[in-house]
């Protein structure tokens, strides 16, 4: 009989693999590749690389699937970006950027190590149990071929697991009746989300939008006057994460307790190397 997963084992594993997937979004390698295609604006590049698996979709699809971006910001870049860089070219550029980013952050020795192959095998095995229904970003990426190189196969698998959990997370946010900016504000208030400065700089919302969202949250009793989560707000964020865990349990149950523990260990070691190499801006996360 397979032993049950420890509580929050899937979430702990996700917290190791998701940042490894996300390193390329902050990488000069991606900026270089997208600029070579003629896409110089960082938001246009982000929308393109994350949406390309869905094909040349319009602004409405991207806004819905990404959830927390201002519709006006999305519409400034989509679908216009596809005229400059069609999805097939973007996907190839994204893969090249991921390759360069992982080699630069982790080092050639780690990329070629047997542990990388093991991590790829474990992550791909977990992804076998991901489900497609109501998960557009996961489903689109699941249609892409698995790269042959172990480090890129691992990155592909982290992408599948990240988008699978992310699609389910949106369901949890809707159930909690948190609109896009309210979701961002409450996440920032936990200290684990993007700082308000990064939210306003990258998601297309104004300070007035942010202030209005915080006021709505105060009226619901979720934020206090200082912008901190109240007891009710903390409980709601806990419920959101627990519901996200529930909707995302299949891949980790499929991998099993021992496999999840090993994948968490391997991904954690890789993430430590990436962080030590400066994978993310220092002021990205937090309440300030």
UniProtKB/TrEMBL annotation:
User: What Pfam families does the entry give?
Assistant: HTH_67
InterPro entries attached here? HTH_67
The domain of life for this entry's organism is Bacteria
NCBIfam families attached to this UniProt entry: SCO6745_fam_HTH
Q: What's this protein's name?
A: SalK
């Amino acid at each position: 009989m397979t032993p049950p997963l420890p509580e929050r084992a899937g979430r702990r594993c996700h917290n190791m693999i998701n940042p490894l997937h996300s390193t390329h979004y902050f990488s000069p390698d991606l900026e270089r590749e997208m600029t070579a295609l003629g896409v110089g604006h960082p938001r246009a590049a982000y929308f393109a690389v994350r949406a390309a698996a869905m094909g040349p979709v319009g602004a409405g699809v991207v806004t819905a699937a990404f959830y927390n971006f201002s519709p006006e910001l999305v519409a400034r870049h989509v679908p216009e970006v596809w005229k400059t860089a069609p999805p097939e070219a973007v996907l190839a550029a994204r893969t090249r950027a991921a390759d360069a980013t992982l080699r630069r952050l982790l080092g050639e020795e780690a990329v070629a190590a047997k542990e990388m192959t093991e991590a790829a095998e474990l992550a791909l095995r977990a992804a076998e149990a991901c489900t497609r229904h109501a998960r557009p970003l996961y489903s689109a990426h699941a249609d892409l071929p698995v790269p042959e190189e172990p480090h890129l196969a691992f990155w592909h698998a982290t992408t599948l697991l990240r988008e699978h959990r992310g699609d389910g997370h949106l369901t949890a946010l809707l159930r909690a009746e948190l609109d896009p900016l309210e979701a961002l504000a409450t996440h920032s208030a936990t200290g684990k989300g993007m700082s308000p400065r990064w939210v306003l700089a990258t998601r297309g919302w104004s300070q007035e939008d942010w202030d209005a969202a915080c006021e709505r949250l105060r009226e619901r009793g979720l934020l206090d006057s200082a912008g901190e989560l109240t007891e009710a707000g903390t409980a709601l964020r806990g419920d959101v994460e627990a519901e996200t865990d529930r909707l995302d349990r299949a891949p980790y149950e499929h991998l099993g307790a021992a496999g999840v523990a090993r994948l968490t260990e391997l991904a954690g070691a890789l993430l430590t190397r990436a962080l030590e190499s400066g994978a993310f801006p220092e002021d990205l996360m937090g309440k300030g």
